[in-house]
Amino acid sequence: MEVKITAKKRLHQGRVFELYSEKLTTDTGKTFSVEVIRHPGAAAIVPVNADGTVLLLSQYRHAVGGRIWEIPAGTLDPGETPEVCARRELVEETGFSASSWKKLGEITPVPGYSDERIHLYLATDLTAAAQSLDENEILDVHRFSLDEAIDMVHTGRIQDAKSICGLLFAARAMGKPRGVRTASRM
Predict the structure, then answer these.
(1) CA gap 4, 24 in Å, rounded
(2) 42-179, superfamily in CATH?
(3) Separation between Cα atoms, residue 186 and residue 177, nearest integer Å
(4) Rounded Cα–Cα distance for residues 155 and 141 (Å)
(5) Residue 96: φ, ψ to 5°
(6) Nearest residue to 96 via CA among 70, 132, 148, 42
(7) Are 86 and 79 spatial neighbours (Cβ–Cβ below 8 Å)?
(8) Is 69 helix (H, G, I), strand (E, B) or coil?
(9) 62-91 residue pLDDT tens
(10) Residue 65: in which H helix or E strand, if any?
(11) Hey, how many other C-beta atoms are within 10 angstroms of the C-beta on 140?
(12) C-beta separation of 83 from 45 below 8 A
């Protein structure tokens, strides 16, 4: 089935994204309207120290009413590549830079109403840098073993989709496919 946009109206221009109402028509003549968030994209990072610990953020997120556990991430600036964004965000949010980078994949977290794509990276060979938080970022950096972080996913302590995907992809990339729990651990 083919779908064409027959009308488009911007409802809101925000700091990061735009909200549109779009009228769609199928090749069978059916018409309907949808609201869509147009997002520039983002990059998220699983930073792993030489001792194997993972850096996680305890970050205040107003939309969900409090702090949640996340991997570092941020929105792409105009003209910025996902890897450049990832490198920038790692330093800004954690106070560490990395000399080794591996792209883990991409995810589309909420395709029902947004075109946002998040590029996931594994960052290793970390060195201290100057943390530089945005004025609206309220977060603390913590270290966990990869096993602890994966357990946080399975017990529901980590509920953020990009963080779940990033940690599971990183575990596999590091040869530790801990994404599936064994019967003895359930």
Answers:
(1) 6
(2) Nucleoside Triphosphate Pyrophosphohydrolase (3.90.79.10)
(3) 16
(4) 20
(5) -130, 150
(6) 132
(7) no
(8) strand
(9) 999 999 999 999 999 999 999 999 999 999
(10) none
(11) 10
(12) no
Give the C-alpha separation, 68 to 142, whole Å: 12
Encode pLDDT of 35-52 as tens digits.
999 999 999 999 999 999
Rounded CA separation 17/143 (Å): 31
**What is the per-residue pLDDT across 133-143, written as a single tens digit (0 to 9) for each?**
998 999 999 99
Active site amino acids: 135
Tokens of 170: 């990183």
Residue of 97, 85, 90 lying closest to 39 (CA atoms): 85
Residue 107 tokens read as: 């995810």
| Residue entry with tokens 């589309």 | 108
**Which tokens sit at 125?**
């060979």
Q: Are strands 73-75 and 42-47 parallel, antiparallel or unpaired?
A: antiparallel
The ranges assigned to domains in the chain are 3-38, 42-179
Predicted local confidence at residue 178, as pLDDT: 53
Does the pTM exceed 0.70? yes
